[in-house]
Amino acid sequence: xxxxxxxxxxxxxxxxxxxxxxxxxxxxxxxxxxxxxxxxxxxxxxxxxxxxxxxxxxxxxxxxxxxxxxxxxxxxxxxxxxxxxxxxxxxxxxxxxxxxxxxxxxxxxxxxxxxxxxxxxxxxxxxxxxxxxxxxxxxxxxxxxxxxxxxxxxxxxxxxxxxxxxxxxxxxxxxxxxxxxxxxxxxxxxxxxxxxxxxxxxxxxxxxxxxxxxxxxxxxxxxxxxxxxxxxxxxxxxxxxxxxxxxxxxxxxxxxxxxxxxxxxxxxxxxxxxxxxxxxxxxxxx
Length: 286
Hints:
Blueprint (H helix, E strand, L loop, with lengths): L1 E7 L2 E6 L4 H4 L2 H5 L2 E2 L8 E2 L16 E3 L2 E3 L11 H14 L13 H31 L3 H7 L1 H15 L6 H32 L3 H11 L1 H19 L6 H34 L10
Antiparallel strand pairs: 1-2, 3-4, 5-6
């Protein structure tokens, strides 16, 4: 029964009175509880008014979309969400649910999948945006496509470092992959823009100009890359509050940049020469 309320700071807390567990869980003492009805002069034992039978029941009934629902939650701290979901799927496959029962995987997993779908769209928009910028810069589709071909290889480096460090692919590390797109394109633009500058100024062939560009632009590319890597290194250590969000992003960028830098210096010139030809020269300005 209700017995008023008390205040904890500025929050009221209702007070209820109930029989002790020694009475509530003892059938004999429970039957002997006196019940005084409205207008009655004498109390009546509860056992003469009701019968008792132990049974398992739910504390509450939950519904969603007019259907009964049972919510099952668990603490997954100390394990990756992907590993937990693999175990859940394996258990569901080994013990199929009865007919008329539907299992929906929700919670953090559903939120993560929705975030991944949104980030995939962002990744596609990022690739299209940087490609458009490079098309305007180089006035050609060949150079942008060659530079963007390096991006999947850099993703291999990012995923490899995440795997090596035991870091899960989550929303934070996926954001690092999106960040990689811009960083990789930056190195490609530094190299190829200088190549076109040499070809236009000296009338050099593509092979000669790109060799010169790789030699001259090696220092700026390495300096910008190393500055980025050393800047992200403290975040990759995962120290301090919020490290669970910062560390996967930093590891993804570090792994991707480490692999993409030598590929930008070697694979991009090779692909461009293979497509354009060694003796390709810029058309004369009209």
